[in-house]
Write a structure and sequence with these properties.
This protein is mainly α and 192 residues long. The protein has one domain. The chain contains eight helices and no strands. The longest helix is centred in the C-terminal third of the chain and has 32 residues.
Length: 192
């Protein structure tokens, strides 16, 4: 396996590994109110998140800017909590609202620093001009796998089990808020 394939695989694994479930929970909170028919709005949300996290991942990977890792881990949990809250708001439940795209772009900046911590641990002795693009592409492919899985699950629940979108959103938001609260409480002592 060459370096490009290795870092591509590491990027995919970083998103899809259940040990790093915070990425999946964030994506669930972010896109849980969307369905396949909302693909244009969903595309905007995912694109803005990608732009945000790519900017800070690159800035951090090239040593231009860095933030304390413990603070970032707490902020990632906070972004999940805020996104869960936003899904309960009227604007957050509307797939055409501009709330989720804005949150995705801004919170993507924070998540990029989280990705850069992992990237920094695995890429210390590599050429960043090869490893960083392949790692970033892997993150996007992993994110696509998670997003499609969430959309398929939502479709199945809505169509096969007659669960309406409102109930699905309440279940997701409640679960996300519970998980995010626990994550914030676990990470809070590390930032002081």
């Amino acid at each position: 396996m060459n370096m490009f394939e290795l870092f591509l695989r590491l990027g995919i694994d970083h998103i899809t590994d259940f040990k790093g479930y915070d990425h999946m929970v964030f994506l669930l909170a972010l896109i849980g109110t969307y369905g396949f028919k909302d693909w244009r709005n969903l595309f905007l949300v995912i694109t803005l998140f990608t732009i945000g996290h790519t900017i800070t991942l690159m800035l951090s990977a090239f040593g231009v800017f860095s933030v304390d890792g413990d603070l970032i881990e707490f902020l990632i949990a906070a972004t999940i909590f805020i996104t869960g809250i936003s899904s309960l708001a009227k604007a957050g439940q509307n797939p055409k609202s501009k709330l989720k795209p804005w949150l995705a772009g801004i919170f993507g900046l924070i998540h990029g620093f989280g990705f850069s911590r992992y990237y920094g641990m695995i890429a210390e002795a590599t050429n960043p001009w090869v490893s960083l693009p392949s790692f970033t592409l892997g993150i996007e492919l992993g994110q696509l796998i998670v997003v499609l899985s969430i959309l398929i699950l939502a479709w199945l629940l809505e169509n096969a089990f007659s669960i309406n979108k409102r109930d699905w959103n309440l279940i997701i938001s409640g679960g996300v808020l519970g998980i995010a609260t626990i994550m914030m409480l676990e990470r809070l002592p590390h930032i002081f």
